[in-house]
TrEMBL record:
GO terms for molecular function: 3'-5' exonuclease activity; endonuclease activity. This is Nuclease SbcCD subunit D. Residues 267-352 form the Nuclease SbcCD subunit D C-terminal domain. GO terms for biological process: DNA recombination; DNA replication.
């Protein structure tokens, strides 16, 4: 069984006010072309099809086009589950009709986890839901967090699972190897829950021949090669700029798994560019760029000037000033209130200009503050 494991498409995603839609379309068109020559039996999308529960209409149009092409041109079964960014019910729209075209969309969690058998391999489709929903669905009051909920769901699957057969599960969530803790998260992976444990221990997935996970945006295995995240299709935040994105070609036989990463070129790379303003203005790029300026002094209108060289600039930080800012921010509210305004201004001036206010400047500031009302406490 040859599977193309993908996840976290996040169609309609906006990064720093820039829509990723064109990049997503470019990537998915390449993916379709690649699949024509890849001899794959099944395509998996392991959750977070959309970036939001109410995706913009352009995102829905793109998904509609891509899924239609996948089914009509590639003609292989496609499995999609809902992730925590998706609306379970909306993603499931039309699912029972699409099934006859080999498009399996599992949006909502069912009491009995859905199983689809392709050739000699069983696929279990476990969409994301919060533990309260699962507790009510399974009528099991012992479920106190996501880990309890997932364990209850997996135990239920195991009651009828034939271990002699090849069993694959598709799931969306934060699966960790508690004994090792070797995971990494990024800014575009929304937390799964507030206040309760959101991790699921990898142990409960041990009985499956392959576990196709979604949620973490960095491609990585969890404990074994056979339990893995394919990662998001594109870089979706500054914290993902160093990751090498892939989709995973997985060959699964009973008791053996082989992984071959497939790298597709994105329309734009996303990266961090570090340097002085002067130096950056000698460079040029269409990539999505986060600047880290090394300049000591603030540069007027830096972003707009840089945009002439980097039309897809995403953000700008002065990294030498960061430390100063942190010192400033650790000052408590109380000490801020008790500091006279002219002292605060002097500190502010010092931070921005990297030098002290001169005596004559100080006088000017004091007289202005006096005119503003005198209450400079
Ligand atoms: Mn997710």
């Amino acid at each position: 069984m040859r599977i193309l494991h993908t996840a976290d498409w996040h169609i309609g995603k906006i990064v720093n006010e820039v829509s990723m839609l064109e990049d997503q379309e470019f990537f998915l068109e390449q993916l379709i072309e690649k699949l024509k020559n890849l001899d794959v039996d099944v395509l998996i999308m392991a959750g977070d099809l959309y970036d939001r529960a109410f995706p913009p209409k352009e995102a829905v149009t793109l998904v509609n086009t891509v899924l239609t092409r996948l089914i009509k041109e590639i003609n292989i079964p496609v499995f999609i589950i809902a992730g925590n960014h998706d609306s379970n019910e909306r993603v499931e729209y039309g699912a029972s009709l699409f099934e006859s075209s080999n498009l399996y969309i599992e949006g909502t969690v069912k009491e009995e986890t859905r199983k689809v058998t392709i050739q000699d391999t069983n696929f279990y489709l476990l969409p994301f839901a919060d533990h309260v929903y699962i507790r009510e669905l399974l009528k099991d009051d012992s479920i106190k967090n996501l880990e309890d909920a997932t364990r209850a769901q997996i135990n239920k699957i195991k009651e009828t699972m034939n271990k002699e057969e090849t069993n694959i599960i598709i799931a969306h969530g934060f699966v960790i190897n508690i004994s090792e803790d070797s995971f990494e998260t990024t800014d575009s992976e929304r937390p799964l829950s507030i206040g309760t444990a959101e991790y699921v221990n990898v142990e409960m997935f041990e009985d499956f021949d392959y576990v196709a996970l979604g949620h973490l945006h960095k491609p990585q295995k969890v404990k074994h090669d056979r339990i893995r995240y394919s990662g998001s299709i594109l870089k979706y935040s500054k914290s993902e700029t160093k990751q090498k994105k892939q989709v995973s070609l997985v060959t699964v036989e009973k008791g053996s798994v082989e992984i071959e990463p497939i790298y597709l070129k994105p329309l734009h790379d996303m990266r961090v560019v570090k340097g002085s303003f002067e130096n950056l203005m000698t460079q040029k790029s269409d990539d999505y760029v986060f600047f880290e300026l090394l300049d000591e002094t603030f540069i007027m209108d830096a972003m707009n000037q840089l945009r002439r060289r980097f039309p897809n600039a995403m953000g700008l930080d002065y990294i030498t000033k960061k430390n100063d800012n942190q010192v400033y921010q650790t000052g408590s509210q109380k000490s801020l209130k008790e500091t006279p305004l002219e002292d605060l201004f002097s500190k502010f001036y010092q931070q921005v200009k990297q030098k002290e206010l001169a005596a004559d400047q100080k006088e000017i500031v004091e007289s202005i503050l006096h005119k503003l009302g005198g209450n400079n406490k």
